[in-house]
Design brief:
The chain contains 20 helices and 17 strands. It has about 625 residues and is an alpha/beta fold. Bound molecules: flavin-adenine dinucleotide.
Length: about 625
């Protein structure tokens, strides 16, 4: 003991004399340290680009429409503004091509707003690849794993990494799932998001207390990306516009324009807002209409470029539908998804925390026809509830369903190889995409996944660059590292920066930063302008609401957000705002119904609607939301 003390004393006296003898040095050390500290604080400040609080307004829809009508000839005309069409517009525009894109409804009005919202390679497809010893299937998984990382890099504000647990109920499954998830990591290579790991049954129960744990033996956790599909879609459209493309929603292609030698040279388009028809000419035309690819292919076959009066069964697209529903947040662990790898009919079912709620669902029910607005049936909703009940401890109640929707997946096959009897199950189809070149020069891109939209776009533009002479140098693909609108200068501390700059609550700051990224300050500038702009959207236009605030509401959707979305994101209807620019209708259909009148009021004022238009738009949005499971779950 004494030896220990004496040693300590010697050491500390040595230390003291050393310090005394080098007072200046020590002093300067402390000065330096302060400097270093100041420098690092300064560096932190400097490393943050100033918040962009103003920017010139983007072209209005009518300016874009004028450009569509008056441009003599575009390099590329893209038909369809879903993930694939909008992604292709970004790719082509950033290579220096003069691009037009027309979308008959709104961005993501088709399948691209109705997905499971996962940026994934697909653990199930990896399983298939291994069991079928299929290199093609494996390549597909690897391709998607690469693209998964691109989505997260390019749109960091709209996507995140999500751990997903596979609850394991039999010991023999432990090595099976363990090896499977490790292979998933391995095939992602450098693009792997995070390593998978195994949880004991105790840990799995602690993380997921809702799980039926009677026979739970372990949990296997792997990682995928989760994103906001319709917001990513409109962000792509806006990014394309920022790069010079002429992208317009509510414009439908009614006919293909053909040259004397039967080449497609453009399209007859209809502005669905005014009913006006006009021609758009282009060197190359791309059909990116997803499930509706066959309709444009029918026009392509017709010498006059017209669609047949009665549509034939689709040849290229094999429609398969999927239904999802939203449940309260307590149905899944916080920040971790669950995967039921063995539903009664062999499909997989996901339960994912998304936007503060739980998204549950599956895909792969073969369909005979393609509806523009598929609606989930009561049976489909009950089916998901039934599957969920199998591994949730407490009763899964139908009245807990907050919203439900159905989407059509455009699985594809080569139309040249399809016989007259074109029936067939979707289960055996590879979820790969197909670039189909018609003899007329029309190029159709369909299939694939949301996750692979960027690569599909790259290959499509590579293909037209090879086949058409644009009379100018076309750059190679630019989209691998391209940050989309809102993703530039974004990092996870952006919410804090909004709170510090605007003095708003965490609730609205985090909502805006995770939906608009570095564009959020533009909304908060509008928010600051007036008391009305700060109102929750459902109360827009109401008088004497001095005590009411977005803080009192579950979802902080405000009038400011709607005003921004009209000016900067081409919102034209209440459905655009309630279902796609925000996800209120998806998160809680009944809440969205409550917000209808406020949204209609502001849109009518900003877009100068007459009483009839206002009434029509109101009826349309109510009908739309009523079909999101509201009637089925009452
Ligand atoms: C239930 C379900 C879950 C899914 N989950 C996932 C997932 O988690 N991850 C994943 O990676 N993928 C997922 N997918 C697949 C993914 O959603 C689709 O592959 C993708 O959205 C298809 O995009 P698209 O642009 O080809 O089609 P769409 O989004 O349907 O776009 C086609 C567009 O063309 C427009 N159009 C049609 N005709 C015309 C015309 N004449 N003139 C102008 N415009 C026209 C339509 O209005 C539509 O907006 C899922 C699919 C489904 C059905």
């Amino acid at each position: 003991m004494s030896r220990f003390f004496s040693q300590k004393l010697v050491k500390s006296s040595f230390y003291l004399s050393a310090v005394a003898g080098t007072a200046y040095a020590a002093n300067s050390y402390f000065l330096n340290s302060a400097n270093v500290k100041n420098e690092s604080v300064a560096a932190i400040h400097a490393s943050y680009a100033p918040l962009v609080t103003s920017r010139p307004p983007p072209p209005t829809r009518s300016e874009l429409l004028n450009k569509l009508e008056s441009t003599e000839k575009f390099d590329v005309l893209i038909i369809g503004g879903g993930a694939v069409g909008s992604g292709t517009a970004v790719d082509a525009a950033t290579r220096g091509l003069n691009v037009a894109l027309v979308e008959r409804t709104d961005y993501a009005a088709g399948t691209s707003s109705k997905s499971t919202k996962m940026a994934h390679g697909g653990v199930r497809y990896l399983e298939k690849a291994v069991f079928q010893l299929s290199k093609a299937q494996l390549d597909l998984v690897i391709e998607a794993l690469n693209e998964r990382a691109h989505i997260i890099q390019n749109a960091p504000h709209l996507s995140s990494i999500l751990p997903i647990m596979i609850p394991v109920y039999h010991y023999w499954q432990v090595p099976y799932f363990y090896v499977g998830t490790k292979m998933y990591d391995l095939f992602a290579g450098r693009q792997n998001l995070k390593s998978s790991y195994m949880l004991s049954s105790e840990s799995a129960k602690a993380i997921a207390p809702m799980l039926d744990d009677k026979e739970l033996v372990a949990g296997l956790v792997y990682h995928d990306g989760l994103f906001n599909d319709s917001r990513l879609n409109s962000t792509l459209a806006i990014t394309a516009i920022e790069n010079g493309a002429t992208v317009v929603n509510y414009v439908e292609v009614k006919q293909l324009l053909k040259s004397q030698d039967n080449k497609v040279i453009g399209a007859v388009a209809l502005d669905r807002e005014t009913g006006k028809e006009f021609n758009i000419k282009a060197t190359s035309v791309i059909n990116a209409t997803g499930p509706f690819s066959d309709t444009i292919l029918e026009m392509d076959k017709d010498p006059k470029g017209l669609a047949p009066e009665e549509l034939r069964p689709p040849k290229m697209v094999v429609p398969s539908s999927g239904v999802h529903l939203i449940l309260p947040e307590y149905y899944a662990p916080k920040g971790m998804g669950l995967l039921d790898a063995s539903t009664s009919d062999g499909r997989v079912m996901f339960f994912l925390p998304w936007q503060g709620k739980v998204l549950a669902g599956t895909t792969d029910t073969p369909q005979k026809r393609i509806d523009e607005y598929p609606v989930p049936t009561e049976h489909e909703i009950e089916d998901i509830i039934h599957e969920l009940q199998k591994f949730v401890k407490f009763p899964v109640r139908k009245e807990d369903v907050l919203s439900a929707w159905a989407g059509i997946r455009p699985l594809v096959r080569n139309p040249d190889e399809v016989t007259e009897d074109n029936s067939g199950s979707t289960q055996g189809l590879v979820r790969n995409h197909l670039i189909y070149k018609s003899p007329t020069g029309l190029l159709t891109i369909s299939g694939g996944k949301w996750t692979t939209y960027r690569e599909m776009a790259e290959q499509t533009v590579d293909s037209i660059v090879k086949d058409f002479d644009f009379g100018k140098e076309v750059k190679p693909c630019q989209t691998r590292g391209l940050k989309l609108v809102g993703g530039v200068d974004y990092d996870d501390s952006f919410t804090s920066r909004l709170i510090q700059t605007y003095g708003v609550e965490e609730k609205i700051a985090s909502h805006l930063s995770s939906n608009y990224g570095t564009r959020a300050p533009l909304i908060l500038e509008i928010f600051k302008q007036s008391r009305e702009n700060q109102l929750p959207i459902g109360l827009a236009g109401k008088k004497d609401l001095s005590d009411v605030s977005y803080k009192d509401f579950e979802f902080p959707f405000t009038v400011a957000e709607l005003l921004y979305s009209i000016k900067y994101e081409y919102t034209r209807t209440p459905v655009d705002f309630l279902a796609r620019r925000t996800r209120l209708a998806y998160l809680n259909a009944k809440e969205a119904l409550i917000a209808v009148d406020g949204v209609v009021e502001i849109l009518a004022r900003e877009l100068n609607w007459d009483t009839k238009t206002k009434q029509e738009k109101r009826e349309h949005v109510i009908d739309f939301i009523n079909k999101m499971g509201v009637n089925q779950i009452q």
